[in-house]
Amino acid sequence: MNSGCLNSETVKAKARSLGFVACGLAPALPLPAVVRERYRRWIAGGCHAGMSYLERNERLRYNPDALVPGVRTVISVALPYRPLRQAAGISMYAQGQDYHLVVRQRLRRLMQEIGATGRCFTDTAPVLEKYWAWRCGLGWQGRHTQLILPGMGSTHFLGELFVHQRSDQYDFPLSPCCGSCRRCQEACPAGALADKCLDARRCISYLTIEHRGPFPPDVALEDTFYGCDRCLKACPYMKQAPVGLPEFQPSDRLLAMQPHQWKQLTEEQYGQLFPQSAIERAGYQGLMRNIAQLDRL
Ligand code: SF4
Ligand code: SF4
Fold first, then answer.
1. Which residue puts its alpha carbon closest to atom 1 of ligand 2?
2. Considering only 10-14, 75-79, 163-167, 261-265, which range has the smallest mean pLDDT?
């Protein structure tokens, strides 16, 4: 194990050269009690709905050293995904390739290029990603619960390196800047957003991606059948969101899909439309269940 010291400016420059639009570093200390308690209350209230995996691995989630023994520094990065053109009905984040593949590949390159040792994560382990992004100074959590990067909005995938090396400098968290704004809460058609608290049981994004089984009778999908961006799009900070990587842009084939074609989508067409896509999370059956909910098609 290389136990040397990282130069934080070099790490950030390497991250920029790999397409990450933000990068910050923090000491790999256990999560503060206030953060742990907030998370526990959210779970105890049942707001994580059917995502039972969020209940497990508390020790690993709260203590970086339990997840990666010997870790000294957490490096948090953000990769932009905002599509220039958006295929209707599908969330912005799922228009192109599966972010797990794209982000992980770049995280591994970053690890190599900075000469660090440790592990990379992107939505794949018990890591509170938004906490670490905030702690590393990337941004703050808005009332819609997503991370807002100053001057860049919220359409970013987050990734982390948990490394064994110290850094010559660490970053500081930013203060939240929502002020008196409540636009995201007002834009939510399902009443899923309390202040910085998402009730996944009512969230269209959760219901169309993770949820198995029937929908709550009083939640209407309207024109969305995979994910939901209404709270994100209502946020004034989104005006500044950079365009996402080419990998996250939709194909011409996906953009050409017409509303009536979705209802008749075959499994073979599904495979052609979504090669290596995050939409595989719902699968063909899940997508068709969602499409069947749309009244206006
Ligand atoms: S994703 Fe949609 S349903 Fe979920 S909180 Fe945001 S606006 Fe509400
Ligand atoms: S819409 Fe307003 S309240 Fe919601 S996250 Fe954006 S700035 Fe904050």
1. 235
2. 261-265
Question: Residues 19, 235, 47, CA angle at the centre, nearest 5°?
Answer: 95
DSSP 237: G
Kind and range of the H or E element at 160? strand 156-163
Q: Is 172 exposed, middle or buried, given 0-12, 13-18 or 19+ CB atoms closer than 10 A?
A: exposed
Nearest Cα to Cα of residue 64 among 129, 148, 152, 141: 129
Q: CA-to-CA distance for 200 and 198, rounded, in angstroms?
A: 6
DSSP, collapsed to helix, strand or coil, labels residue 180 as coil
Q: Are 73 and 28 in contact (CB under 8 A)?
A: yes
Question: Residue 270: left (phi > 0), alpha (psi -120 to 50), or beta?
Answer: alpha
125's tokens: 């382990």
Distances (CA, A) of 98 to 28, 52, 108, 242, 247: 28, 23, 16, 19, 9
Q: Whole-angstrom Cα distance, residue 73 to residue 52? A: 29
- Paired tokens of 83: 């599509």
Residue 13's SS3 state is helix
Q: Is 188 in the pocket of ligand 2 (CB under 6 A)?
A: no
Judged by its nearest atom, the ligand closest to the C-alpha of residue 204 is: 1
**Nearest Cα to Cα of residue 149 among 248, 255, 241:** 241
Q: How far apart are CA 203 and CA 190, in angstroms?
A: 6
List the structure tokens of 193: 């957003």
Cα 198–chain centre separation? 14
pTM of the full structure = 0.95
Lowest mean pLDDT segment, chosen from 74-88, 211-225, 232-246: 211-225
**Which residue's CA lies nearest to atom 8 of ligand 2?**
178
Within 13 Å of residue 123, how many CA atoms lie on the same side as its CB?
12
Tell me whether strands 22-27 and 197-198 are parallel, antiparallel or unpaired: unpaired
